[in-house]
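Chain A, query sequence.
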Amino acid sequence: MAEAARMSWRIRIAGRVAFEAAQGEGEVRAVFRRSCYLRFGARYVCVGDAALGCGPLNALVDDFQTPAIGERISLALANALPWAPAPLPSTAAPALSALRQAAIGRVPREGLGGLVVDVHNVLSGHAQPALDAIDRWLVGNALDDEAQGLIGLGPGLTPSGDDYLGGVLIALQQFGRKSQAQSLWRWLTPRLARTGDISAAHLEAAASGEGHEALHRCIAALCLPAADWDAALTELDKVGHCSGWDSLAGVVAVARLT
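Chain A, predicted structure.
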């Protein structure tokens, strides 16, 4: 009997991690309506259609079809366009007032996104000791053990606490505080067993300053005098259940102390 044809997707655009990781065949580990995660060895790639948007782990296809868990798929990247976030100008300085005004009434009730406008819920209340520990560290104090409370905090493949930490890492890199980003990543690395492998993969990309393109659009908008915040936040709304907003809350934590 002839062997069944192996499945392959021709990738149109991909982030740095996707290019590096997609060697040989990947195993489908998580499936959603318009995207899925493939594991290549110890690394992950998220494949989806254009609605997924660009990101370091993302590989976009024109003909996404929902695969089965455990299916093995190869990615054709030879003609794919590379995506990477544009660096901020060296003179960029974040300002939060316009964002906070635009975000009133549209932050999600779940997750940690409410922190963008100082609105709290049960999750942020539970996370407060960890959030305070991160704030103290950002202004130069030692990183207390309480900060571990954010790792793996919340439901989903990328919990809210992880997304918040990812936003902190990305903002530190983008706002010229690279040594602090490296220090936080060194602290996080031995503690990643507290969360899932997919979330850890996103945190590793964040440690290099890379996240979803919608988050980078918001970071750039923070440094513009007349940003289109309605458009930027509309795109952020599309990132996960509330992952975009959770990450933005982490960015704001850094921006208000930069």
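The chain has two domains: 7-83, 97-255. The CA atoms of residues 172 and 181 lie 5 Å apart.
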